[in-house]
Write a structure and sequence with these properties.
The chain is α/β, with parallel strands linked by helices. It has four domains: 151 residues, DNA polymerase, domain 1, CATH 1.10.150; 89 residues, Beta Polymerase, domain 2 (2-Layer Sandwich), CATH 3.30.460; 74 residues, Beta Polymerase, domain 3, CATH 3.30.210.10; 236 residues, Metal-dependent hydrolases (TIM Barrel, Alpha-Beta Barrel), CATH 3.20.20. 44% of the residues lie in helices and 14% in strands. It is built from 24 helices and 17 strands. The strands form four sheets. It has a seven-stranded parallel sheet with strand order 11-12-13-14-15-16-17. The protein has a five-stranded mixed sheet with strand order 2-4-7-6-5, with helices on both faces. Strand 16, helix 22 and strand 17 form a beta-alpha-beta unit. The mean pLDDT is 91. The chain binds one DNA strand through helix 2, helix 4, helix 7 and helix 9.
Length: 572
DNA sequence: GCCGTTTTCGGCCCGACTGTTTTCAGTCG
């Protein structure tokens, strides 16, 4: 059982308790526990198996939750959750996922319109039944319909990080399988797309029958969908579908190419093959019956007169032309990253102190690390006012003075107010090493006003970086509406960087916008936005985005040495 | 339900906005 699944169950308990209008602090406890579980670097299953470990020693997890986690690990569910399921339709928590619908509205919809699922909700909204309810109106009904649309767009797909967690335990299993000669993961997972629909795993077996048997013994499999000579399809207990496909050595490269995709990239490659009277499929390039290539990907590309193209670029967004012209980018790699440029501490809504975060950053071999707590407008995070901010910076610098080999940067994530003004005084911000400016509130301005707002902040002269620029949360919150071209242009002109926020559910700026911003002359940063030491591990997700966005080391501030960074961001 | 402790109880983040009301509940972050 994966941590993500356990976290999901804890969240579900919280959802159901919320619908029951249970004690809000109890609900919060479950949410906190869920967050802890989700962010754990180790698997709970392993921790629970260790005699030395007490789950209740983990933050936000006490005896009661530890007991429930053990129950879940043991039985796949717990009594508390089962009891709640008896009281409440199981589809009702999903109704709360719709933007604008919280527990109160969900329970009212259930009581008055017998709504117990997203389907019910959609039907009622389309029929105009919802606007009739007390406390609801036409706008709410419209908002619900829009929220349903957003949800359905990405439904059934997992965040890359969640898929990666599932893959991690599958990987361990595959590595231990004696009946396999070789295996690789392909598909959108290999391309590191932000969400993953299923996993494609390619296998070379010593004996397919034996390998199939061994695969099906994997304890995480909840359902075997398909079982044949060439392929085995299963569903894991977390819902993720995995396709295992058998190949032989001579076609493995062609298979990797074919199953890595994207479909559009494959079609473009096949077109090149067809132009030469060849055929390209998952078994190789063929001239008649003769195999010209197929053993490895490089060989297939080479036959097509192309250099090997990194999987992240295979979206048919110009990579084949670039490859033809010898102009493929040298993509930034995890090893190029020398520091992290957004993080939080207990001074606002983080979980670790300045010293703890600094040490964790240093342990990762970083040569610089920015602490950027929230400003006062972000009340839920207990953001800092001007005085707090100055004092906090002093503390950061004190810790920095005791550090060797890493520059601990005194920074802030200042809120961009509705007007475009910043939430802290310019003279406060000028004293800091690093200023990230982000929008957290008033997200519904029209496009023109939102553009003006962001541009005004960018032109303030005191901002180094625009944080999570689109403000989107994958599958949950739509991006802010603004003119990206104008904003990117303003950033380039004012020497303001654009952040790639590496939080797995943000990935903001998205890969798709990176090239647009780069073309406008913008410089990038990657920030994990870590709220705990474990959060620093999100860096790799940010690097994935940068790679998918065609970015090279030279496009990203995090690849500079501390000395060069200091010079680069020095205030005039 | 967790946590810390003045160690077994009391505190736990709270302000702004929206759409609905007619003074505010619900939602969000």
């Amino acid at each position: 059982m994966e941590n993500a699944q356990i976290a999901d169950m804890l969240d579900e308990i919280a959802d159901l308790l919320e619908l029951k209008e249970a004690n809000e602090f109890r609900i919060r406890s479950y949410r906190n526990a869920s967050r802890t579980v989700r962010g754990l670097p180790e698997r709970l299953e392993d921790l629970a198996a260790d005699e030395e470990q007490d789950l209740a020693d983990l933050p936000n997890i006490g005896d009661s939750t530890a007991e429930k986690i053990r129950e879940i690990l043991d039985k796949g569910t717990c009594q508390r959750l089962e009891d709640l399921h008896k009281e409440m339709p199981s589809g009702l928590p999903a109704v709360m996922r719709v933007e604008g619908v919280g527990p109160k509205k969900a329970i009212q919809l259930h009581k008055e319109l017998d709504i117990g699922s997203l389907d019910d909700l959609k039907k009622a909204a389309e029929a105009g039944d919802i606007r009739q309810l007390e406390g609801f109106g036409e706008k709410t009904e419209q908002k619900i319909l829009k929220g349903l649309e957003t949800l359905s767009k990405t439904s059934g797909r997992l965040l890359f990080k969640d898929a990666a967690d599932h893959f991690e335990s599958l990987r361990r299993r595959l590595e231990g399988m004696k009946s396999l000669k070789k295996w690789e993961v392909a598909g959108s997972f290999r391309r590191t797309k932000e969400t993953i629909g299923d996993l494609d795993v390619l296998l070379i077996a010593k004996d397919r029958g034996e390998a199939t048997g061994e695969l099906l013994e994997y304890e995480e499999i909840s359902e075997t969908i398909d079982k044949g000579e060439e392929k085995v399809t299963v569903r894991l207990s977390g819902g993720l579908q995995v396709d295992f496909r058998f190949f032989e050595e001579e076609s493995f490269g062609a298979a990797m190419l074919y199953f890595t995709g994207s479909k559009a990239h494959n079609i473009a490659l096949r077109r090149i093959a067809v132009a030469r009277d060849w055929k390209l499929n998952e078994y190789g390039i063929f001239k008649g019956d003769r195999r010209l290539a197929g053993k490895d990907e490089e060989g297939v590309y080479k036959r097509l007169n192309l250099p090997w193209i990194p999987p992240e670029l295979r979206e048919d967004r110009g990579e084949i032309d670039a490859a033809n012209a010898g102009e493929l980018p040298t993509l930034v790699a995890p090893g190029d990253i020398r520091g992290d440029l957004q993080s939080h501490t207990t001074a606002s809504d983080g979980e670790n102190s300045i010293g703890e975060m600094a040490r964790a950053a240093k342990d990762r071999g970083y040569s610089f690390f920015a602490i950027t707590d929230h400003s006062k407008r972000v009340t839920m995070a207990q953001g800092l006012d001007d005085d707090d901010c100055r004092r906090h910076a002093e503390k950061i610098r004190e810790v920095n003075d005791d550090l060797k080999g890493m520059w601990l940067m005194a920074g802030v994530e200042v809120d961009i107010l509705k007007s475009g003004k910043l939430d802290l005084k310019a003279e406060t911000l000028e004293q800091l090493d690093w200023v990230v400016a982000s929008i957290h509130y008033d997200r519904n301005l029209d496009r023109k006003k939102m553009t003006e707002r962001i541009v005004k902040a960018v032109e303030s002269g005191v901002v180094h970086c625009l944080g999570h620029p689109l403000g989107r949360v994958i599958a949950q919150r739509e991006p802010l509406a603004f003119d990206t071209a104008k904003v990117f242009e303003a950033c380039a002109e004012n020497d303001v960087c654009i952040e790639i926020n590496a939080q797995p559910d943000r990935l903001d700026l998205p890969d798709t916008h990176c090239r647009e911003a780069k073309a406008a002359g913008v410089m990038f940063t990657i920030g994990t936005d870590a709220h705990s030491t474990a959060g620093l591990d999100a860096m790799r997700f940010g690097v994935n985005v940068a790679r998918r966005g065609w970015l090279e080391a030279g496009d990203i501030l995090n690849t500079l040495t501390a000395t060069k960074l200091r010079k680069r961001i020095r205030r005039k």
